[in-house]
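Running this now, will post back.
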Amino acid sequence: LVGDDNNGRNSPTSTTTPGLLALVSGVVHGVAGPGGVLGVIPAAQLRNAKLAIVYLGTFCLTSTCVMGGFAVFYGSLSEWLA
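Update: finished.
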């Protein structure tokens, strides 16, 4: 649904916040980014499968959280400046 705000522009009337959209964008970019290749190379050199799984899981979790956090920060800053 599209509503009309005070400036006459069309705006979505959804309850989704810009911060949530920024977080989702950060998660997607954190998983899909080129840093994933850098995470796989060291894991491939580990001889212990359990350590490799822990390393990859930790790498994916931290990169996703950092990218999501940055996206929330950037989205909030953009909203504050607008």
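The chain is about 70% helix and 5% strand. More later if anyone needs it.
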